[in-house]
Write a structure and sequence with these properties.
single chain; mainly alpha; two-stranded antiparallel ribbon
């Protein structure tokens, strides 16, 4: 994924911690706390979403200049908003090996002498508000991008769509985890696509194309390619969430998806196999220990669920490369899609 390498946060992102150009703000310590939490949440990570914006724009021969970096920042800020809110929903106090936004606020409250219940309320409020600030900054970055207004409006439409789809996917993920009804494999795959593929792959790739002045057919085609890549990414991430260690996942617990009762495609497939009695006994157990996790892993592997999901991911990656070849894209962009597919499969994107 060498083309259009993301140079890192642009000057637009500096406003998160820099002086307010509109003049001195009211001296409110809580505002500074939220800004610090946002700056922390927005730091780190692989920034592969901004690289998608840059790569597609450059490989399509675009010349949008500073607007590319600003929109790339917007995509990353949207990701930050989703990550922060997701950590609230999932109760994760660790992200990328460091305190998450709710973990940060919780620690501050406990250090200040608050009882656990009050610290939980503060952690929830602080993280939700931090995510709101990231979301607002993302939309402002797109709305003020220095490019023709019709392109700005097109990208805002893409952001609106990504927001609506991702929110629906997150809610469906939580609803299906209630255990009131067991989803079909297609429903589980739809949730995976909604939660990740649209905003993490389709959105940045389409924004890169819009910035480059690509045709509607190319923008739409890249959206389809992005959905395939994103679903493959999520399927592989689901596997890592069960079979990976905290050092690999960046989460503070092993197999958090199992403890939360997530109905991922991996779990849904297992329901149709001999592994289900073992999975059902441990799924949604907040006290699931390492021995239980190992039993689940062994059952998923022996029953073929692990290999089934891995093959599904491979099929989606092949679909993405096939679509790229059929779309009459520049040869360099077709090659890049193939390289990106390979990187995702190897976990190196």
């Amino acid at each position: 994924m060498s083309a259009g390498t993301d140079p890192g946060p642009t000057t637009y992102a500096a406003h998160l911690t820099g002086p307010d150009p509109r003049g001195p703000a009211v001296d409110l310590g809580d505002a500074e706390v939220l800004q610090d939490a946002l700056a922390s949440a927005a730091s780190g990570g692989k920034r592969f979403r901004p690289r998608l914006v840059h790569s597609v724009h450059d490989l399509l021969g675009g010349d949008a200049g500073p607007a590319v970096g600003q929109v790339a920042d917007a995509v990353e800020l949207l990701h930050t908003a989703f990550v922060v809110h997701d950590d609230v929903i999932d109760g994760d106090d660790l992200r990328r090996g460091a305190p998450s936004a709710p973990g940060r606020f919780r620690a501050d409250a406990l250090e200040g002498g608050a009882p656990p219940a009050s610290a939980h309320s503060y952690a929830t409020a602080g993280a939700i508000l931090t995510g709101d600030l990231a979301l607002g900054a993302a939309l402002r970055a797109v709305a003020t991008a220095p490019v023709e207004r019709d392109r700005v409006h097109h990208m805002l439409d893409l952001f609106d769509h990504a927001l609506a789809v991702s929110a629906a996917g997150e809610l469906a993920d939580v609803r299906l985890s209630l255990g009131a009804q067991e989803p079909t494999l297609q429903e589980a795959l739809t949730v995976a696509e909604q939660k990740t593929a649209v905003y993490s792959f389709s959105l940045p790739m389409q924004c890169g194309a819009v910035l480059a002045g690509a045709s509607g057919a190319v923008v739409d085609g890249l959206g389809r390619i992005g959905r395939d890549l994103g679903l493959a990414f999520q399927l592989l991430d689901d596997l890592m969430g069960v079979f990976g260690a905290p050092a690999q996942t960046g989460k503070d617990v092993v197999a958090g998806d199992l403890r939360e009762g997530k109905r991922t495609p991996l779990v849904v497939h297992a329901r149709t196999t001999s592994a289900w009695p073992v999975i059902e006994r441990h799924l949604g157990d907040p006290e699931l220990d390492e021995q239980g996790v190992e039993r689940v892993r062994a059952a998923l592997t022996a029953a073929g669920s692990r290999s089934f999901v891995s093959e599904l991911a491979t099929q989606r990656l092949r679909s993405a490369t096939g679509l790229a070849a059929d779309l009459a894209l520049p040869p360099a962009l077709v090659t890049w899609v193939g390289e990106l597919s390979g990187a995702l499969e190897q976990g190196a994107a």
